[in-house]
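Hello,

Our lab assistant flagged a job as stuck in the queue for most of the afternoon. It eventually completed. Since we weren't sure the result was trustworthy after the delay, we are filing this so someone can double-check. Below is the sequence as submitted and the structure that was eventually returned. Let us know if re-running is recommended.
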Amino acid sequence: MKFLEGRPCFFGEHMTRLQRAIAAAGLSVQIDVRELRERAAKLFEAEGVESGVFKIIISDVDKDTAVAMFVRNGTLPPDPEPIKAIQSEVSKASKAFTSRHKSLNYMESVLELEKAKAAGYDECVFSNENDHLTECAIANLFWIKQGVLQTPKLDCGLLDGIVRGKIIGMAHQMGLSVEEGEFGVQDLLEADEAFVTSSGNGPRSISSFTDLAGNKKSYVVELLPRLRSAFLELEQEEALKSE
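-- returned structure --
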């Protein structure tokens, strides 16, 4: 989760998603959102950092609940460079808990991301058992095809990203057509523009995508600067008005 000037960004949305994951996992854990916010503020002060990225981890072993919180990065990343993405050979299970919720069990994504980086890429793109696109290793996936902003629907098996939701909402407000659906690799190869979203970096452009057959598509950058600017403004406003 990103924080600005000592205040978490979209904290309420992150806590709502965390509570959904706790319920889906069948854990008998009660979290105090206000207490977690106060702990976060004390953490930032103790670490001597004002902006960056931090994590909250909830565990429940033998009904003994533990909450861990730590700063992952004590500085904000610069404006991110466009990334090169490649299709992963691994298929994600659309109904799996690990595909739909953020947990510590993401070794598969880590390994595939490292494989992609070793091959000269920055990210990998997953499909599910039905060959429908899902997401990237550490980000949600968007593209623009014939003027329509498209992204895999949640039922395909992907994380309900906070930034993903914000981008969809902002696109609607801007009068853009948005389609959440079941898409294949060919849709991404036929897109005009593509980008990923994550809490740490926000929206980030994809410069090119290569599928398993070696087909490569390079993308233009047209809409993303407008979306990114609007998102960063919203992110700042939401963080600074939070209590």
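-- support follow-up --
The delay was a queue issue, not a problem with the job. The result is valid. The helical segments are 11-24, 33-47, 97-100, 107-118, 162-173, 185-189, 224-241. The longest helix spans residues 224-241.
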